[in-house]
Amino acid sequence: MTTAPSTLTRADLCEAVHSELGLSRQECSGLVERTLELIVESLEAGETVKLSGFGVFQVREKRARMGRNPKTGEPAAINPRRVITFRASQIMKSRVHDAVVEA
What we know:
The chain is an alpha+beta fold. It has helices at residues 10-21, 25-44, 90-98; strands spanning 49-51, 55-62, 65-68, 75-78, 81-88.
């Protein structure tokens, strides 16, 4: 029987920064929140966010197109939209590939 993988949360990130840097938990929380806020603001503005050794977040514009309702098979219009894409760096890909998962 396998267990579901755990999830890394904002609180986990704050705790890791606190442990590593020794800043107060409130300062660490503010640091993590501001970092995530800057990433979101940049993406909202259509900018690319590159985190060296981690990956690249980009906003793509998808045009309108015709699709279909999978339940009924009826044609359905899909509106234009903006989507976020993420491309992992080679360093991150290697680390994830080489990581040993403990059971």
